[in-house]
Write a structure and sequence with these properties.
Elements lengths: L1 H32 L68 H4 L34 E4 L5 E3 L4 E9 L3 E8 L4 E11 L8 E2 L4 E5 L11 E8 L10 E3 L2 H4 L2
Antiparallel strand pairs: 1-8, 2-7, 3-4, 3-6, 4-5, 5-7, 5-8, 8-9
């Protein structure tokens, strides 16, 4: 009887061990099926690598743009001088044509007529005459035969020899006091040796009467204007004054 009881107790122990072992095996198998790493305890779907925390990308702040701030325009290189626009037969005059300043030069500005052989009483005042596109003439025309000598009205430096669509062959001369620009247009050609930077004397031949530009074929004359400039380096800008009373003196 004692041997039988002892055998039954051993069997129960063996069965208990088998049950426990089986239970542990089933639990481990279930964990493996669900992809649960034993060391983490975190669910990781089958076929996917364990997630890692991504490193945040560097954040670049966009530049702040103030509303209403204009984009700066390109700046010309130092020493670069823009060329004159085609002035429409006279240096550009952003302030508008005016004869108001003319009187301040009468009596103190000693000019000569820039076309050889033309007398003061032959001059016509065409300063305010209308021109195309609503322009004012802002100059006077002095008719003469083709090839007639054109002379400097005063001492001064030749600053530009320019081929203009309207003015044709032209000359810009800066007065010796650097206050005025004398503009000669529709020329047939330049005198020999004339060049920018040359200082010419009053009465010196600088060019010849022609009909270049929009003068009209055979309409030989000198288009002559005077402008008061604030900056000699921007000789194509200025306020036009009437040459007529200054040449009629």
């Amino acid at each position: 009887m004692t041997l039988q009881a002892s055998g039954r107790a051993r069997l129960r122990v063996v069965l208990l061990v088998v049950v426990v072992f089986a239970g542990l095996s089933i639990l481990l198998w279930a964990r493996w099926r669900n992809g649960v790493p034993p060391e983490t305890g975190k669910v990781n779907p089958i076929g996917q690598a364990s997630p890692t925390t991504p490193t945040p990308a560097a954040t670049v702040s966009a530049p702040t743009v103030e509303s209403g701030t204009p984009t700066p325009l390109p700046i010309a290189s130092p020493g670069q001088t823009p060329g004159p626009v085609d002035p429409g037969l006279t240096p550009a005059n952003p302030a508008g044509s005016t004869g108001d300043l003319t009187g301040s030069f009468v009596g103190r500005l000693k000019l000569i007529i820039p076309v050889v052989g033309v007398r003061p009483d032959q001059l016509l005042d065409t300063f305010t005459a209308a021109r195309s596109e609503g322009r004012s003439h802002d100059a006077i025309d002095i008719p003469a035969a083709a090839g007639t000598q054109v002379v400097a009205v005063a001492d001064g430096e030749i600053v530009k020899l320019f081929q203009s669509e309207r003015g044709g062959t032209t000359v810009y001369q800066l007065s010796s006091d650097k206050q005025l620009i004398f503009y000669y247009a529709h020329l047939q050609g330049y005198a020999s040796g004339l060049a920018p930077g040359k200082f010419v004397r009053q009465g010196e031949v600088i060019a010849y009467v022609g009909d270049t530009g929009n003068a009209g074929t055979g309409n030989f004359h000198l288009h002559f204007s005077i402008s008061v400039v604030a900056d000699p380096k921007r000789y194509w800008e200025g306020t036009n004054i009437n040459p007529y009373p200054l040449l009629r003196k």
